[in-house]
């Protein structure tokens, strides 16, 4: 596959470089003033290895909605994963990189008719259903569909519960859907469930797989030949988290209820693969020091930092995915820690990234890093108020590059050899060719520079004065 845009290329780093050295070099280069991401492809590859080791019977079908970056999809396709798609747009994007339609499950239980027609036209046959109207829709539009009945079995603790919207009752509704499928002459091939995104209740998988076994037996009694169990998503992916306990429960349940190679077990991991692979770098463009201590009117009681990404951009995950983001200053601070808050760039008062955190005093132009920003961030980001969505710089170390470079759909065109910052400057250009179009003067906005002598690098002129509180 030819890479038409150099923004999509994967930069191969030698042993002297890593994600943080790349971030440092870009931040200090003077070429980048907007927020940006660094995507570590090796992190995704390592997650895939962990999955195969801990869940050998379960084939991952990546949930595209979690992060539909073309690079992410291509890397996962090269590793042999399948894909969980929720719309005709996602189906088309996955097919465009050469994935076979049989490696896609259309796992949206409530689908617009036009999306079902598209799936039928391109050969995506496996699809989930949790209601009667969807079965009638399939009978009319896609009668050759391979139906997977989605049941509800909710985790007691989950980052994003899904049962309130999707999944039928396994004891009453699911048997009726199986009987209706039989009447409509639709082919039921399996059972699926989703315990909730970011599951913190491993035993729920045992309960759900047990329900699947019961419905498997009923579907056989009705004349179907089921072969598929889809155990959905819910697998944590942040740095420091583990799926080991969940895997132990799943493996035990599979051995108890589906101990046969005749049954294909798949899952729909999303955040597991990408959450820790993306690191976001943001810059402080404005700062407000609040002095509200009447006993010490010149002392700063808290700082408000305004950065160049917010809840309408990458940090939509705070609102929609219930994320708790952790700010880490790129430079080590000194002195006392000051109560601080971090705000996005828009004019909306809702645009608050961190409400209360202790930070060393920082200057304008300083960078704040946020790790674990790969899940449900970029796909939902918007350019509200005219602020751009952060660009993504993709890197990989040499060992992972040697593993991937000959695995389709990846080709030599996907990679560029060499360290930062020179080759990553190409990534600042929309077309990958004109670096100067994105070159900005150094920010030169440190408050220490404002107080002292003017610096040569700053294009701005300041007047600074201490102001007493207004009574």
- The coarse silhouette is elongated
Q: How many angstroms does the end-to-end distance come to?
A: 67 Å
Summarize the biggest pleated sheet: 10 strands, mixed
Number of helices: 13
Helix fraction by DSSP (H/I, runs of at least 4): 25-40%
Let me know the average pLDDT. 85
What class would the helix/strand composition place it in? alpha/beta
Total tally of structural domains: 2
Q: Please report the total strand number as a whole number.
A: 20
Give the CATH class of the largest domain: Alpha Beta
CATH topology of the largest domain: TIM Barrel
- Uncertain segments are 1-6, 156-163, 426-442, 446-471
What is the H level of CATH, i.e. the homologous superfamily of the largest domain? Alanine racemase
From the 3D coordinates, which CATH architecture of the largest domain would you assign?
Answer: Alpha-Beta Barrel
Q: What is the percentage of strand-forming residues? A: 15-25%
Whole-angstrom Rg: 25 Å
InterPro entries: Ala_racemase/Decarboxylase_C, De-COase2_C, De-COase2_N, De-COase2_pyr-phos_BS, Orn/DAP/Arg_de-COase, Orn_de-COase, PLP-binding_barrel
Pathway: Amine and polyamine biosynthesis; putrescine biosynthesis via L-ornithine pathway; putrescine from L-ornithine: step 1/1
GO molecular function, one term: ornithine decarboxylase activity
Domain Orn/DAP/Arg decarboxylase 2 N-terminal: 42-275
